[in-house]
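S1.2 Input.
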Amino acid sequence: MESSDTATPDLSIAAVERETGLGKDTLRVWERRYAFPTPTRDSAGDRLYSYAQVQQLKLIRRLLDAGMRPGKIVGLDTLQLQALQTQHSPDPKQTLSRTKNAEHAVASMLDTLLEAISTHDPEALRHGLSHAQMRMGLSSFVTDLVAPLTSAVGDAWAQGRFEIFEEHLYTEVLTGVLRSAIASLTPQPLSRRPKVLLTTLPQELHGLGLLMVEALLVLEGCACVSLGTQTPVTDIVQAALAHEVDVVALSFSNIQKASTVQASLRELRTQLPPQTALWAGGACTALYSRPLEGVSTVRHLSGLHPLVSQWRSLEQQR
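S1.3 Output.
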């Protein structure tokens, strides 16, 4: 299928992955199984995707997130996909009302929790976090409250409104709440795959991101092995082999130099077995400015679910 917009250049498979959130392996499997997408090839034999196909893939991705199966939608034309999107879209007025109410509630909780930090009241902070976790459920607690709260605490420290000990207090209390919540989850049946190794590279001290990711992965039914922070590449590889993990997941903040991040990921990708997936996420812009072959990036916590689903889909096809 050719693009109707000849002024829009075709995209490489790496660019399509970034645009749609659909992995390269998924695109190749769909091409074989469903005869869609249908890329052309450049002079080097690499795939090129038209603008129209990329737009279809974006619609497909939205429908997958809504719970539809690839076999029901991959290969449908744009009008058919748009019709399905309309059917699966909630009433905008109801959605807007719920969104505003939820945003107001979260804003109120953020103010209360920030006040507990600034007044040096760890009990109020612990109670507020624990109560919010029970009310919201672990997934929404992590994505809708903890993520923005962590950013707000970091901003307050950077602006001089919080001292470093206040940031440490927040980290310590939240770590306890999250670990307790994770431990209370009912174990998932069967294999609990993928099995994911979680850590950071040396000089990367921030471990809250790892803990937030662990909570969401456990909710997805994954088995998690956490090494904490600052693990050298060789030790990560040894641990991955010893624990027979399916995925190595790393968290990066913006303190790392881009060259260090890129070099470390290349080294890790080279040393890990080819079948071991490598995921990287966090606030580090170097992860997204120059994506690496064989490394899946997750800019936001909401991207974890599609990655897990993609891994399981590919595993079923092996």
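S1.4 Remarks. The beta strands are 11-12, 40-41, 47-49, 195-199, 223-226, 247-252, 277-282, 296-298.
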